[in-house]
Amino acid sequence: MDVSTSDLLYRFGVALVIGLLIGLQREYAFWRRKHRPDDELFAGARTFPLIALLGSAGAFAAEALGSSMGFIGALLVLGGLLVVAHYRRSAEADTGLTTEVAAVLTLFMGALCFWDRLELAAALGVTVAVLLALKVQTHALARTIDREDVYATLKFAVITAVVLPLLPEEGYGPPPFNVLVPYNVWLMVVLISGISFFGYVLIKVVGPRRGVGLTGILGGIASSTAVTLSFAQRSHDAKPLARPFALAIVLAWTIMFVRVLVEVAVLNRALLMAVWKPIGAALLVGAGYCLYLYWSEDLEKQDEPDAFKNPFELGPALTFGALYAVILVGASAAESYFGTAGVYVSSFASGLADVDAITLSMAELSRNGSVGVPVAARAVVLAAVANTLVKGGIVLATGAHALRPHILPGMLLMMGTALTVVFLL
Q: I need a surface site. Which of 129, 244, 336, 397 has the fewest CB within 10 A?
């Protein structure tokens, strides 16, 4: 492989930067936890860059010699040094293999840089640095998970890595059933389950007891309806906290609009261009109302919210998949037999139960041309409005009287803004 000197220096330079990033994190972590004067740093801000350069040099030697022994030699040298260093450290205290494994990875990242896989090497470097920096959070997460969390994680892994690749990627049957593609239906199950699962992991990492507002944000990723029901019920037992509870609820509703934009962006960029204005306007109004609630009362002294259960269960995931499929067929049939009005009615009715399913359905239908983009955009907005209306009804039906005056203005503002922008502007 003929590589210019400047390109070669650039690749070695990237390896140096990656090693420096990891080394600085290791050295910072060492000095932060150091307790004894005789403690020694195994590898830090100088050693890790050298290891990355060793990986690049080993790959360069293998290329120049026409044999993999050049890189294998570098790996064996590093491996020998790591064995000796770990033996000495483990003889003095109980120690893990985190730094040693990071060193081996750094060697391979240096080799990847020479092989012109710079994006992969940089991504791995950042990932390793983040994992090393999140030691406290990952240990805390491990201490908080239970058997239910483990089973839920395994189920999510099965539906993502095992079931999804096996499903056919073509539709069956005459219209409107031809829109039912098993792979696409299950992909939506994975997408929405992934969003909820990610939100749950965030709650586990930072803890639900960091404040009602933060729980509203993170809980909104998992389930804004669950947040609404939880805080509406708790408002009876802590009436002085009506405004903080309202803040958490409206934050969760605002995050629901963020979820809608993310789901549309992943599936259909053309629909995103049509839907971002009304949904974004409702999002901004919701965020502004949250700021009003936050600034109008001191939230330093507040009750702590309850913990959230893992949102992923196989039963609800299958139910969501069935709901998505029914909506997909129903919306396609409504468009065929009743025109635009049928789509709007079915979208509003579907949004009363679940905004994610109709959002994903409209994104898919507008992408394959079954529904026009402007119609799909209005349908998504109607579903979001219907869903917000249902959650407002939950507050009115189950929340304390003191909670209602703080919720209603925000609800009406978000709904009115979204409808005005999508239908009148």
A: 397
